[in-house]
Amino acid sequence: MADNLTREQRRWTMSRIRRGNTGPELVVRRLLHARGLRFRIHVKELPGCPDVVFVSAKVIVFIDGDFWHGWRFEQWRAKLALYWEGKISRNRERDQCNFRKLRRCGWAVLRVWEHQIERDPERCAERIVAAVDRGRLTRPTLRGRTSTPQRLSAVRSTMST
């Protein structure tokens, strides 16, 4: 891998990149919470560890960075070193695999891009609220049946088969 930084410099730089609770995530979560929605965050039991999960509506939201998840990747892929091109390609493939698994299990999957949140966060929040409302209308209530962790572990076991 050709790199213009030393190993120590690259390690320090990469350690500063946040995996969760990023600025765009916090913006969206605050807007959703202000609208009265309650949700779980970073649910590790589900493929891809979704950023926001509405269990009762079966809606999942991924809030993705433009670079790391390859927004319009084909337009700028040639400008990258082979290492980064491969890394982002694998991220995109993994994202699509996780989306397919979740949809097969009946989840509605939304992807919100970083640039969309920067441009119009209210519109992003409204898109999510609309999906949650649709999910609540089409899904029977699960109140009183099982707890959320039990339902999520059941989903996880069906995905591994």
| Whole-angstrom Rg | 18 Å
- CATH topology annotation: Endonuclease, Chain A
Shape: globular
Overall strand count: 4
Give the number of helices: 7
Q: What's this entry about, in short?
A:
The protein has about 160 residues and is α+β, with helices and mostly antiparallel strands.
Topology of helices and strands:
Elements: H1 7-15, H2 23-34, E1 40-41, E2 52-54, E3 59-64, H3 73-76, H4 82-104, E4 108-113, H5 114-119, H6 121-138, H7 148-159
Parallel strand pairs: 3-4
Antiparallel strand pairs: 1-2, 2-3
Keywords:
161 residues; alpha+beta; four-stranded mixed beta sheet; Endonuclease, Chain A
Can you put this structure into words, describing what you see?
The chain has seven helices and four strands. With 161 residues, the protein is an alpha+beta fold. The chain has one domain (20-159): Endonuclease, Chain A (3-Layer(aba) Sandwich), CATH 3.40.960.
